[in-house]
């Protein structure tokens, strides 16, 4: 079966400053995410999570190795036709309403107009924003914008949903909503790949998890197995952090 | 096509929301109407002086609008991070740049059209309907603006608005002095200077090549061969600059 996401020896090096100093944000990442699973991607700040996700989203290009979405190279825009993406803090044209912004994203994803209208109604209802569908986004709270972000990620009915810190800045009700959406996506046969600092959410939602530290993959496995070994995911994570070699912030993992 | 149209229309909507744009437009319109005042302080062929003043106002302010909007065209999307959710779609970056560019050209087209309508009304009331060559000159001005905007888009693809403004202004200025570069090179004794000046002349844009203002002011018709020449030059050069913009943007990581 073709994996939903596949990294093979993927690396990312940035060049920065006047002297083009080399910063290695990601080193030799190899992992597969199988279709239909909820996959958690965790690590401390600056570990390379966002860099990895940006490679998937087509915002960054890897400098070594390969990255594929359903077998299609991440550099090919077609790879993202089956992917929905929610950035850590989604930004939109704030003068548009939720309905208008979803129409815009639907058109960019080449979704027929009648499908956009139907999906917009369904999704706004699902995230409890129907009443605000025609209100400009500048009047929305941060949590409401995050929910619009989820709608745009799901609008074109993608087979893979990539979420970067989807719970960030949400209140408990918002987090519960996102959690139930992630489960619903899996029940519908879709793959969810998400990063989070909230380990409790990762533990309760994910089938498998990868721990990345200093741009390198440190652990990969079923959540159940990690929990059985360490008691809970937080302990597993902390023990990996303790075991990892201190990273030189001048050369590694500060750009994620 | 749907992606391109959608991006262009949104760029247009974004651009027309900018209040500074209206300030520039209003100022230009005031000058077009105010060109009538030139009649009172001119000796000689007053009608031509008025036409020349009004046309120059449109040329200068349309170029200002093109530069003002163009330099932040791509940067604004990156700075506000709206590009994240746009470029994570199955959208080639080339189409993103082209969509933004076409949106800007549409905005410029509307702005120039408004100025031309006001110009026509003012001229018709004061001295009768302007000759057709005047409208041809506005058409060629649009081609010039499309090339200028392509340069601004290229600079916007890799730098912030301040740097992009500086470079675009430099290109705009040099582009209007291109003939002088040729003259300077021809007059130089050194072979190296001659070759350098010629190379610069052929590489840099020649914005004066688009101008038929003198013929427009005097109502002298312009041959079709000249128009075709200018159109081919504008289309070819604009395509090359846009291709460079796409190449630059394709290699760029979004911070």
Question: Quick gist of this model?
Answer:
The complex is a heterodimer of chains A (256) and B (255). Chain A is α/β, with parallel strands linked by helices and 256 residues long.
How would you describe this protein?
- The complex is a heterodimer of chains A (256) and B (255).
- Chain A has 256 residues and is α/β, with parallel strands linked by helices.
- Chain A has one domain (5-243): Rossmann fold.
- Chain A is built from eight helices and ten strands.
- In chain A, helix 2 crosses helix 3 (113-126).
- Chain A is globular, with a radius of gyration of 18 Å.
- Chain B has 255 residues and is mostly helical.
- Chain B has one domain (2-250).
- In chain B, 80% of the residues lie in helices and 0% in strands.
- The longest helix of chain B is centred in the middle third of the chain and has 35 residues, at 93-127.
- Chain B is globular, with a radius of gyration of 20 Å.
- At the A-B interface, helix 2 of A face helix 1 and helix 5 of B.
- CATH homologous superfamily of chain A - what is it? P-loop containing nucleotide triphosphate hydrolases
H/E topology pattern of chain B: HHHHHHHHHHHH
Computed Rg of chain B = 20 Å
The topology string of helices and strands of chain A comes to EEEHEEEHHHEHEHEEHH
Tell me the total number of β-strands of chain B. 0
- CATH class membership of chain A: Alpha Beta
Element layout with pairings:
The complex is a heterodimer of chains A (256) and B (255).
Chain A (H helix, E strand, L loop, with lengths): L4 E12 L4 E13 L4 E5 L6 H8 L7 E6 L2 E2 L9 E4 L11 H11 L4 H14 L15 H13 L5 E5 L7 H16 L3 E5 L3 H7 L2 E6 L2 E7 H8 L2 H11 L13
Parallel strand pairs in A: 3-8, 3-9, 6-7, 7-8
Antiparallel strand pairs in A: 1-2, 1-4, 4-5, 9-10
Chain B lengths: L1 H15 L2 H16 L11 H25 L2 H7 L2 H6 L5 H35 L4 H27 L2 H16 L1 H10 L3 H13 L9 H6 L5 H27 L5
Helix pairs in contact in B: 1-6, 2-3, 2-6, 3-6, 3-7, 6-7, 6-12, 7-8, 7-12, 9-10
